[in-house]
From TrEMBL:
Residue intervals passing through the bilayer: none
Pfam families: GMC_oxred_C, GMC_oxred_N
Sections of the chain in a coiled coil: none
Domain of life: Eukaryota
Family statement drawn from the similarity comment of this UniProt entry: Belongs to the GMC oxidoreductase family.
Binding site for FAD: 277
Gene3D superfamilies (alphabetical): FAD/NAD(P)-binding domain (3.50.50.60), Glucose Oxidase, domain 3 (3.30.560.10)
Domain Glucose-methanol-choline oxidoreductase N-terminal: 136-159, 314-328
Keywords, alphabetical: FAD, Flavoprotein
InterPro entries for this protein: FAD/NAD-bd_sf, GMC_OxRdtase, GMC_OxRdtase_N, GMC_OxRtase_C
Name of this chain's protein: Glucose dehydrogenase [FAD, quinone]-like
Required cofactor names: FAD
GO MF annotation terms: flavin adenine dinucleotide binding; oxidoreductase activity, acting on CH-OH group of donors
Amino acid sequence: MWECDPILSSGVANSYHSTGPLFVHTLQSLLAAQCALSGDYLWPSDRTEAVFNDPHYDFIVVGAGSAGAVVANRLSEIPEWKILLIEAGGNPNMATETPSGFYNNINTYVDWAYKPQPQELACRGYKNKRCAWPRGKALGGSSSINAMYYVRGNKLDYDEWAANGNTGWSYEEVLPYFIKSENISTVLTEENKKYHGKDGYLHVNRNELTQPVEEMILSGMSEIGVNEIDDANGANQMGATVSYNTIKDGIRHSTARAFLSVIKDRPNLHVLKDAYVTKILFHTNTNKMKGVLIQKDGKEIQVIAKKELIVSAGSINTPQLLMLSGIGPRKHLESLDIEVIADLPVGENLQDHAFFPIIYSSATNESLMTFSAIGSNFLEYMFTHTGKFSDIAPSRVIAFVNASDPDAVSPEVQYHFSVYSPQVSNYIDLYGLHGFKEEISQKFKDVNNNTYIVYISNILLKPKSRGKILLKSKNPNEHPLIFANYFQEPEDLQVLLKNARKFSLILENTAAFKSGNFILDWMDLEACRNFDKASDEFLECHAREVTFSLYHPVGTAKMGPDGDETAVVDPELRLRKVEGIRVIDASIMPTIVSGNTNAPTIMIGEKGASMIKEFWLKNK
């Protein structure tokens, strides 16, 4: 990777001197712009040599993602503590940092590119019936490749956690940790101050200049009875709104940029990059954590943690690491000849937000996705961090609805309204990147060839279905087996269909959508061709063929109180039946939240780090 060396950039440009000074100047300017956006100097340096010299740390944090970066930042605030943060990926790059290009990170080296096992009830339209589960593999983890929506979920999500015995996790108790992280761009009123902060590391932004198509969507939703709200993270989540995003000055504000870049020179924080933790080590004949074994540059490194090991590897990698280390379901581990350290339901309780799309199209001969337009927009972004690449507008409208109860204060379904110009595949091949069969990928291109699209993601927020993660083998470099089990419980799909009929499917009848000439448009899928498009059978077929993940796996190291046999960690996030390990990431969620999971995972990082500091500072 180019490291933004000014001598190097000059040398590269000078090698093209024969093409003229204008080209040289342009190339130098582009290199400088790339350097400013994603240069290696922005991130903590790799400290492999320091680890070799002294592999002893007070705390080891595995995973520099949405939670791990937060934990490393907060623990290293104590100068006498020595912290090691280990990340399997490397630095963010130009593609991760450009907001509008987030889809283009799928299947690249910053993506673990997981694929759950084939399903009969969902994901039928994919090659081998295996849907796509992108997960971030870089500093910032999935916060470096996600869509940057800042959504906290519903108050009742956290009150449910607390009611089930997770002391300290009610909404009122977690709210201060949301506020602690946040630096919101909005001018706060007295009411907003109850919910938002301006002193945190994480920049939360919303451009208040809404685009006409966003106004059209909000008006259409209002016509069908879904009120517009100002802030889904405030007093009331129910309704439609223009979302807040984790973007600052036209650049993605991942936890890498928010929590690590700003402390990259902190002397007591060492970061190992492109380093993969393969096993947790224990003291001989005990269940007391000793440290970890790391693969790095073809070598194995053993590192010791004197106080605690914090596993923040995410809802897939965390259970994989725990099971490889002998922490998991006894029968499963013994079947792979893994010595059992602690018999725990690791990998169970897997939940995710699945959705199927509903497409509205409006015919036009105009395309904003020509290569010349893409090129000029890209140059504008590179030099000024403004323009179409600097935001996810006009795809910012989200809504939270409940078809079962008009007076509900918590939603059944979330809608993401994505807006695509004609021929969007010139820029991003939505269906191809996800691994759909060529027939389906082509059908979407056919629909989008000469039409603008409002693409509504119908997202089931509180699935009753549960999946699981198992090891495929003892080889740590082999992806685990993921069983998503979408729609395993029939009620899940029925909730989606009920809400679609009450809300998203009737938008074409609104004056707002008619004003834009947007009509309901279905891809002509062979599997669904024999069903009447007005029937539930057609909708069900479409949902099972064109199933997507919203990339929100949680729950595989469930938090629960003493006596809960399904729990892996306690409410202090301490791993049960062993000493010295905590899990701090989305895997601890007992039940999935009603919204995007990045902000709640950052909150978990803040709260988890606070509990660690309180314990060790009190007992030092």
